[in-house]
């Protein structure tokens, strides 16, 4: 029987690559012998993986029976996940959603564990659900699936004209008269509008094809079913043409001509390869086009607009520009307004008479250098007792200004849209919940609304800025404006060519560098029987900015004194490395090995201690260990019941920053706030062969 851990790891690898991989690519990713992987795939069968042959290529797709509960109210004991469908598809705009957005909740983790999917992160789970759970597809047209399959709406129907049994993999008719083609132009347009991309649509088609063929085989129908619609009479293909080849060619032809946005065509895709996601629908406006000129012209993957914003309404099967663009934008920029009356638009639900509405925008100003003058400046507001909306960092006459400004919050929000962050205003401490868009006083537990709205830019402003760049910012201004602004200085040793806007880059250190020597010496203090193969520096600009902001906040709490920072080790499962480098440490996933001193992420002074929690890759002798920069601050003795550091006896309103195993000689540190951690290095090492006894 196959190892569940290995199966889970293969599923994670597939989902991290969009849900499918070619055979050879999969072998390289999992770094297991080809024969072993083939045996695993054969043992678990199509309950976990589908093997699809298309021409000379063989693909492996991730499959699972895990499903999201469709009940509006559900009692305990349900075997399904309880998650917001719109959130998983990136479309939940409700300020306070009644459905869960937390895949790491206790109930959801039990479900994932039962399906052997505990190692998946949110993005992995999203891919797996989208290509397996029919709940995420548009509704199937019931009229089309009855009688003579005639729907009066035809091309205007907003429901899928697909055989409903095919989507379940249970169509028993070898020559079904209803369509089994999800890549038909009208059907694919509905899938794209729902929020699925081309690759996911392709994967669903392959999985349904495979399951239906297997179902027919079980029924004793050796002849492969025929999928409709057939090629048009003007086509040059014979009936003997393999259906898969026809479907791929049809999809390629469709994507060459289909317009996903007005005046924006989709790049042609090779009929022998999965559809590219490079040309998916974008909600970002091209900075260069608004500013002056875009050299990519119609081939640009971004939207071309004359203003840095554009309001659109979803009508039929496409997004259409709204004529009252500037009027709507002006209303939206006012934080006190929740709607626009003519036309009727609800800014909270982003709908207009029940139809979806969206705002296209240029990138946030905090993500680009100041010379880009057409970026969108986002302002953050909170609502005071008088119902007035006050921008963060400003005083309202009753309360002191917060230690956070709009740029600070914008950076923190972009780094973790569903996270929380603590800050101070005068003597009071608050926490902002980005997911709920609320601010809570930690002492009185009072809640206030929070809103994020753009700064209004008129047509005249655009004309004035067009073709110009911002002048140089005085050093004093740039340095004091925000610890998270674009002018932030990264460590001097960082490679400036490896600073991605999202995610991270791993840069291998030179063995002759001072940086390498420092980390190697720290490691070998307790690991002399092991030899380092390489050390990689993790460069994640988003996590670094949040880490610097957290350091500033802790420094302010100490009256300007420096905060104690340490380089500490952390060992974890190999499958969690990618998630940690991207999203930081999360004790609920990568810190479950022990909670003796509290429910947090554990870090060790000695590499030898963390090594005990390392799990090397299968069929490999190589281990990988994290070295993290940790703001330990003021520490208290830990306890298994702690879910946050205890309050200080000298000031009950303030808590310690971390917990330790021993106050006199701390060797283990427990961190409850992940912003106090930056995953700095990965050490790859093996046992020294000279130390192995024969």
Automatic annotation (TrEMBL):
Gene3D superfamilies: 3.30.720.50, 3.90.228.10, Winged helix-like DNA-binding domain superfamily/Winged helix DNA-binding domain (1.10.10.10). A zinc finger (C3H1-type) spans 162-183. GO terms for biological process: positive regulation of mRNA catabolic process; positive regulation of type I interferon production; response to virus. Pfam families: HTH_53, PARP, WWE, WWE_4, zf-CCCH_PARP12. The keyword Phosphoprotein applies. The keyword Transmembrane helix does not apply. PROSITE patterns: PARP_CATALYTIC, WWE, ZF_C3H1. It is found in: Cytoplasm; Nucleus. InterPro entries: ARTD-AVP, Poly(ADP-ribose)pol_cat_dom, WH-like_DNA-bd_sf, WWE_dom, WWE_dom_sf, ZAP_HTH, Zfn-CCCH_PARP12, Znf_CCCH. Residues 365-452 form the WWE domain. Keywords: Cytoplasm, Metal-binding, Nucleus, Phosphoprotein, Repeat, Zinc, Zinc-finger. One of its GO terms (molecular function) is NAD+ poly-ADP-ribosyltransferase activity. Residues 490-694 form the PARP catalytic domain. CDD domains: TCCD_inducible_PARP_like. Residues 162-183 form the C3H1-type domain. PANTHER family: POLY [ADP-RIBOSE] POLYMERASE, ZINC FINGER CCCH-TYPE ANTIVIRAL PROTEIN 1. This is Uncharacterized protein. The gene is LOC123016916.
């Amino acid at each position: 029987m196959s190892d569940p851990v290995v199966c889970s790891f293969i599923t994670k690898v597939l989902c991290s690559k969009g849900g499918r991989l070619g055979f050879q690519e999969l072998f390289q990713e999992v770094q297991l012998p080809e024969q072993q992987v083939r045996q695993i795939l054969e043992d678990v069968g199509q309950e976990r993986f589908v093997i699809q042959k298309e021409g000379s290529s063989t693909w492996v797709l991730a499959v699972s029976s895990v499903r999201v509960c469709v009940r509006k109210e559900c009692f305990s004991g349900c075997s399904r996940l309880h998650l917001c469908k719109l959130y998983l598809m990136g479309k939940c705009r409700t300020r306070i959603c009644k459905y869960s957005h937390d895949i790491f909740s206790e109930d959801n983790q039990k479900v994932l564990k039962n399906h052997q999917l505990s190692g998946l992160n949110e993005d992995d789970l999203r891919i797996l659900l989208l290509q397996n759970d029919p709940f995420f597809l548009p509704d199937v047209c019931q009229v089309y699936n009855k009688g003579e399959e005639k729907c009066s709406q035809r091309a205007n129907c907003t429901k899928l004209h697909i055989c409903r049994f095919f989507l379940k993999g249970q169509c028993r008719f070898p020559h079904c008269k209803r369509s089994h083609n999800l890549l038909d132009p009208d059907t694919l347009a509905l899938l794209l509008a729902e929020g699925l991309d081309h690759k996911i649509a392709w994967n669903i088609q392959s999985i349904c094809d495979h399951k239906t063929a297997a179902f027919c085989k079980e029924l004793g129908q050796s002849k492969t079913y025929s999928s409709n619609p057939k090629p048009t009479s003007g086509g040059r293909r014979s009936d003997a043409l393999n259906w898969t080849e026809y479907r791929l060619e049809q999809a390629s032809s469709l994507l060459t001509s289909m317009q996903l946005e007005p005046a924006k065509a989709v790049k042609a895709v090779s009929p022998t390869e999965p559809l590219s996601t490079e040309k998916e629908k974008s909600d970002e406006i091209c900075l260069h086009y608004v500013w002056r000129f875009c050299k990519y012209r119609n081939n640009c993957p971004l939207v071309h607009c004359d203003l840095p914003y554009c309001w659109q309404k979803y009508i039929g099967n496409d997004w259409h520009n709204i004529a009252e663009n500037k009027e709507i934008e002006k209303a939206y920029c006012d934080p006190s307004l929740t709607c626009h009356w003519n036309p009727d638009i609800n800014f909270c639900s982003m709908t207009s008479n029940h139809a979806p509405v969206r705002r296209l925008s240029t990138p946030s100003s905090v993500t680009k250098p100041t010379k880009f003058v057409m970026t969108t400046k986002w302002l953050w507001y909170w609502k005071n007792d008088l119902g007035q909306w006050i921008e963060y960092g400003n005083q309202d006459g009753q309360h002191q200004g917060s230690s956070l400004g709009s740029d600070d919050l914008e950076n923190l929000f972009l780094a973790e849209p569903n996270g929380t962050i603590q800050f101070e205003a005068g003597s009071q401490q608050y926490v902002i919940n980005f997911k709920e868009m609320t601010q809570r006083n930690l002492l009185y537990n009072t809640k206030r609304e929070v809103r994020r709205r753009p700064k209004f830019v008129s047509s005249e402003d655009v004309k004035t800025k067009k073709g110009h760049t911002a002048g140089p910012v005085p050093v004093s201004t740039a340095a004091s404006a925000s610890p998270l602004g674009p002018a932030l200085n990264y460590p001097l040793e960082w490679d400036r060519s490896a600073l991605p806007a999202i995610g991270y880059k791993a840069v291998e250190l030179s063995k002759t560098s001072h940086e390498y020597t420092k980390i190697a010496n720290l490691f070998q203090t307790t690991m002399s029987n092991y030899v380092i193969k390489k050390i990689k520096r993790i460069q994640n600009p988003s996590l670094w900015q949040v880490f610097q902001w957290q350091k500033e906040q802790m420094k302010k709490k100490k009256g300007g004194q420096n905060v104690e920072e340490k380089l500490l080790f952390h060992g974890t499962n190999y499958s969690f490395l990618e998630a940690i480098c991207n999203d930081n440490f999360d004790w609920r996933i990568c810190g479950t090995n022990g909670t003796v001193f509290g429910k947090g992420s554990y870090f060790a002074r000695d590499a030898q201690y963390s090594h005990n929690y390392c799990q090397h890759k299968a069929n490999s002798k190589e281990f990988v260990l994290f070295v993290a920069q940790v703001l330990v601050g003021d520490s208290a003795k830990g306890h298994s019941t702690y879910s946050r550091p205890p309050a200080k006896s000298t000031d009950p309103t303030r808590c310690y920053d971390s917990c330790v195993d021993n106050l006199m000689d701390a060797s283990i540190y427990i961190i409850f706030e992940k912003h106090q951690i930056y995953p700095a290095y990965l050490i790859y090492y093996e046992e020294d062969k000279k130390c192995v006894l024969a």
